[in-house]
Specification:
The chain is an alpha/beta fold. It has a single domain, classed as Roll (2,3-Dihydroxybiphenyl 1,2-Dioxygenase, domain 1), CATH 3.10.180.10. It contains 2 helices and 8 strands. β3 and β4 form a beta hairpin. α1 runs antiparallel to α2. The relative contact order is 0.22.
Length: about 120
């Protein structure tokens, strides 16, 4: 099990603003920003998702999935991400190919990474 993950982004300020808006519907907030070079997002007092200003941005496309408490949170995540400038990469909906209750939504962040919110609970 992972404790936390992070990666460098091409435009730190833009990405930080994007993730602040996009993750808010999931209850994930900016928790710390050590020296203004990294932003740690999390909930319940623990940052677990980091973006970094230093280093080479990741080449290729990452896929990061955030667990949502309910399907409505997935819907709000998708709407907030689009409003923050994301590109739609899969509207909210059931993805039975994974399992009958898999409800997810996908967007591309400012660097083109596939960011998902998913709920595994029945409707």
């Amino acid at each position: 099990m992972l404790d936390h993950a992070g990666f460098a982004v091409s435009d730190y300020r833009s990405s930080k603003e994007f993730y602040e808006k996009t993750l808010a519907p999931l209850g994930i907030t900016l928790m710390m920003e050590p020296s203004g070079r990294a932003a740690g997002f999390g909930r319940n007092g623990r940052p677990f998702f980091w973006i970094e200003a230093q280093g080479q941005p990741v080449r290729g496309r990452l896929h990061v999935a955030f667990l949502a408490d309910d399907r409505a949170s997935v819907d709000r995540f998708h709407a907030a991400a689009l409003a923050a400038g994301a590109t739609d990469n899969g509207a909210p909906g059931t993805r039975e190919v994974y399992h009958p209750h898999y409800y997810g939504a996908y967007v591309l962040d400012p660097d083109g990474h596939n960011i998902e919110a998913v709920c595994h609970k029945p409707a």
